[in-house]
Amino acid sequence: MIPNAPEIGKLAFIIAFWICAIFLPVWAVSWAVGVFLPMIIEGQNPGPELALVADILRTATPILSVLVFIPLNAMFMVLYERRALALFTVRMGPNRVGPDGLLQTAADAVKLLLKEDITPRGADAVIFTLAPIVFFAPSIIGILPILAAITNNHPLFAITNLPTGIFFVLASASIPLVALVMAGWSSNNKYSLVGGLRAAAQAISYEIPLVLSLVTVCLMAGTLDVVKIAQQQDGGFLNWNILGGGALRGLDAAIATALKNQDWAPVIQAFYPYGAASFVAAIVLIFCSHILLGLYLTGACAEINRIPFDLPEAESELVSGYNTEYSGMKFAIFFLAEFTNLFIVSCIATVMFFGGGDNPFPQWFLDQLPLAGIQAGLGSALSFLINDMRLVDPDTFWAAIWVIIKVYSLVFFAILIRGTLPRFRIDQLMDFGWKRLVPLSLIAFLLVVFARVLVVSHGY
Amino acid sequence: MEQYMMLHDYVSNAAAETALFYLISIFAIIMSVGVISDRNVIRSGFILIGVFGAISGLFLLLQAQFLALAQVMIYAVGITLVVVIALMLTNPRSEKDTSYENEPVSKDGSPISPFQRLRLIGPAFVGILSFFTIYTAIRSESWIASGEQVSPDNVRVLGTALTTTYSLPFEFASVLLLAALIGAIMLAKAERPTPVIEIGIDE
């Protein structure tokens, strides 16, 4: 019997409540702006101006949904992190505001917004004000290509699908770094300055393994386009990039053929054309993609300054690092951006390694279950919502559900890491980055380059 | 619904592109003037990021998405940050200490030597010379304007060009960078005699 089962139950309840509280408004806003208002406007035979308004509304859907999502998500993530950490360290966690501390972070947000906004004497006021903005803005911009990938390229979100996809995300993820140095320097405080410089040194070092690991995944996929990368991995966990970037696609196809009582040997032959060498290459690919995931998560943790890489804001050494002098609204923006970045990092991992909005069950497994009847029944029962009101898009809906599950599981993993590992020392951090991770990422890159020729994988 | 001008038509017509070009250019020029006129070197380093950002906006207008993003990632963030950090570490003169720029007189009051005078007008001369070189180069060359559509997947085009047509220059550039890297490591690792710290108790 698990002794802290009630605590786990409470945490699960908080997660369920807040996920509804986040995604129902996001859903409502996207539907209202993208579908309902244009439908009303176009319903009454509008002139050119009104038609343009409808078009602008439709185009603005992705950015509006992100703007609704970010503050709600940050509130949830703070509570999630505090309660989960409490669970790991056998404490209670916030449990007074609302039932079981459900509304703790909502109260915190109100408090932060009402606090006085102070600019310290001797600070460079313009840069001091600009820093939180520069820190936060790229996280809104950077999530856009991912949006297209996780909604299964829904027509409303297809506008955010860029051909340079993952490179766009990486480029906008590198901008907050400037803001950390700006904040540290303009605060006119030595702890802030050291924090900002540490952030810059750390992020520049860890960006190399991070980018190299994603580049290797793009190499396996043969494209930079996140939507294509997500779509390649459709059809069960055997196709996900975490298992060798489609190295097991042949196995998947062979099982499907075997279940149909056909000869599966030619399928294996088609996907693994070089016999034993191909099998070795497939194993190498699977091994490498696990290393790549590890490299990515390590690099990403360092990029967003989470424990064990939170040296820029090490409170025992630097008070609070670059945001020591910030208060009120500006501090809230830093806080918001940090948790949004954690979400984005998990989103990228989901799309690049865990198949995006794909369900983990292979198609041949789903065919065994009586799902077709349920699907048809649900489709006809909800036909009014799907076809007339266009409130639910089945493709996007299931993709969104799976993405939510995967992303928040990865966030849980990040919190687990935070609760488990102690902080690095700055010289160990640099050693680890440059002498271990960078060579490891180059070796993985080289192995993948040679191994993927021998196997029919994604992007072959 | 098809007959009306939609948002896409407004954004992608030539007038909007021209207007955006002028807006971004004005922003870039103002930022550049800010970089050279700001008394505080570190702040001008931060303003430089704005210049690079505006230039990446120009690349975006030219539909060179990859170049624009590389500009942001490498110039606006990587290189500028390294420069700013180097400035912080070398402890530049503060904004009050501007005597050096304004007075063309040597410190002890004696008339300035020709060498010092050269040092004062030298940068201006180099600046004007390079400006006119680039200006004439851009204006005199008859540029071949091709009416070919820009491929939306221009990363692929770039990659193919770099590994086939331009593979030799590409390799030369990488050898050059490698040489620079090794040189930097050699300079940084140069063994200096460790200073002997004398802890003597003098009577």
Summarize the structure.
Chain A has 19 helices and no strands. Chain A is mostly helical and 460 residues long.
Distinctive features:
heterodimer; A: 460 residues; mainly alpha; 72% helix; globular; B: 203 residues; Four Helix Bundle (Hemerythrin (Met), subunit A); 69% helix; 0% strand
Description:
The complex is a heterodimer of chains A (460) and B (203). Chain A has 460 residues and is an all-alpha fold. Chain A contains 19 helices and no strands. Chain A folds into 2 domains: 114 residues, no CATH class; 334 residues, no CATH class. Helix content of chain A is 72%, strand content 0%. In chain A, helix 4 packs antiparallel against helix 7. The model of chain A has no long low-confidence stretch (mean pLDDT 84). Chain B has a domain of 89 residues: Four Helix Bundle (Hemerythrin (Met), subunit A). In chain B, 69% of the residues lie in helices and 0% in strands. Chain B is extended and about 80 Å long. Chains A and B meet through helix 2, helix 6, helix 7 and helix 8 of A and helix 1, helix 3 and helix 4 of B.
The CATH class of the domain at 7-95 in chain B: Mainly Alpha
What's the total number of strands of chain B?
Answer: 0
- Going by CATH, the architecture of the domain at 7-95 in chain B would be Up-down Bundle
Poorly predicted regions of chain B are: none
Percent helix range of chain B: 55-70%
Could you say which overall geometry of chain A the principal axes of the C-alpha atoms support?
A: globular
What is the number of independent domains of chain A? 2
Biggest sheet of chain B, in brief?
A: none
In total, the number of strands of chain A is 0
Distance between the termini of chain A: 50 Å
Give me the strand/helix succession of chain B: HHHHHHHH
Mean pLDDT of chain B: 79
Query: Roughly what fraction of the amino acids of chain A lie in strands?
Result: under 5%
CATH topology of the domain at 7-95 in chain B: Four Helix Bundle (Hemerythrin (Met), subunit A)
Helical fraction of chain A equals: over 70%
Distance between the termini of chain B: 99 Å
Provide mean pLDDT of chain A, rounded. 84
Overall morphology of chain B: extended
| Main sheet characteristics of chain A | none
